[in-house]
Design brief:
The chain has 330 residues and is of the alpha/beta class. The protein is built from twelve helices and twelve strands. Helices cover 47% and strands 18% of the residues. The N terminus is likely disordered.
């Protein structure tokens, strides 16, 4: 009887040790809390970590300052985090962060801003979670093409050419470059001719995009603008505000699938977006980081495909045809 009691106690102690071992601390840096999409992602990540129960997040805001982010990474490593989850300010800084993580034998999961493949390949515990920016550009082109076909009145000069202005995220940013290129390539692939009236960067900012749109609407070719294309929803909102204030009715298209965009689409202020699936990206980051922190195989019970150390969560085009189902989810 005494032996049995001792065995039970030993079993309980082993269980406690096992539970403790599974607890994971993830050091997270977000490039800028002011970014609408990243703020939404951060909320998803926090909610999922709470549901998981055995995961602690240490969250930091890099305030779009790469130097600050590098300091935060150093501090997180000094605090003994089990794994890093990094939303880079500048993708070129990935090599520096990987070197710091490697020196401390700490895995690192990059998300939203993709490092170079060479950087990922330099460390066996480095991975990336995000979405394929090329796919988002292609899908935005599809959404625009379908809407243009349904609204022949948008072709003001009746010449079959889509006269557009394009608000770009930032020069040199991989997502901005891909979205800018492939949205137009896709329109051409579908047989549409295009004419670029203006293209400028607005750093993913609503306020800066409004300023750009204000300037274009004050220009001599304002009446020629037939479509506004934006690399993200937040900048599209700036264009919507500018158009309203200038009493102009021009279709606007974004990327991200934000709740406010769905409302604008309901109200006829925007005509399409491409859903950047923040919820599934957050789940993938959390599960992958937890696997790596606990020395499990990266793809252990993951639910997402890893190829070349990358997980891509698919985008979804949102137009009038399927808007109702996304309004219901939000």
């Amino acid at each position: 009887m005494k032996l049995k009691k001792m065995t039970v106690i030993a079993g309980l102690c082993a269980g406690l040790i096992s539970t403790s071992t599974l607890a994971t601390t993830i050091g997270v840096t977000i490039y800028d809390y002011k970014d609408n999409f990243m703020n939404k992602f951060r909320n998803d990540l926090t909610a999922d970590a709470k549901l998981q129960g055995d995961t602690k997040l240490i969250l930091t805001d890099s305030q779009n300052d790469q130097g600050k982010q590098l300091d935060q990474v150093q501090t997180l490593l000094a605090r003994g985090v089990d794994v890093l989850a990094i939303n880079l300010v500048d993708p070129k800084a990935a090599k520096t962060i990987i070197r710091k993580a490697k020196q401390n034998n700490v895995p690192v999961v990059f998300f939203n801003k993709k490092p170079s493949q060479a950087a990922l390949d330099s460390y066996d515990k480095a991975y990336y979670v995000g979405a394929d920016a090329k796919q988002s550009g292609i899908m935005q082109g599809d959404v625009i093409a379908d809407a243009w076909k349904k609204h022949p009145s948008w072709d003001k000069d009746k010449n079959g050419v889509i006269n557009y202005v394009l608000i770009k995220g930032e020069m040199g940013h991989p997502d901005a470059e891909a979205r800018t290129k492939f949205v137009i390539d896709e329109l051409h692939k579908k047989g549409y001719k295009t004419k670029q009236l203006h293209l400028d960067t607005a750093d993913w900012s609503t306020a800066k995009a409004k300023d750009k749109m204000d300037a274009w609407l004050a220009g001599p070719d304002a009446d020629q603008i037939e479509v506004v294309i934006s690399n993200n929803d937040a900048m599209a909102w700036g264009a919507v505000t500018s158009l309203k204030q200038n009493h102009k009715n021009i279709p606007v298209f974004g990327i991200d699938g934000m709740k406010q965009t769905f409302k604008y689409m309901q109200d006829g202020k925007m005509y399409g977006t491409v859903l950047n699936d923040d919820k599934n990206q957050a789940k993938a980051v959390l599960k992958l980081a937890t696997n790596l922190a606990n020395d499990k195989a990266a793809d252990d019970n993951l639910g997402y495909t890893i190829q070349d150390k990358v997980i891509y969560v698919p985008y979804v085009g949102v137009s009038d045809d399927n808007l109702s189902q996304y309004i219901a989810k939000n």
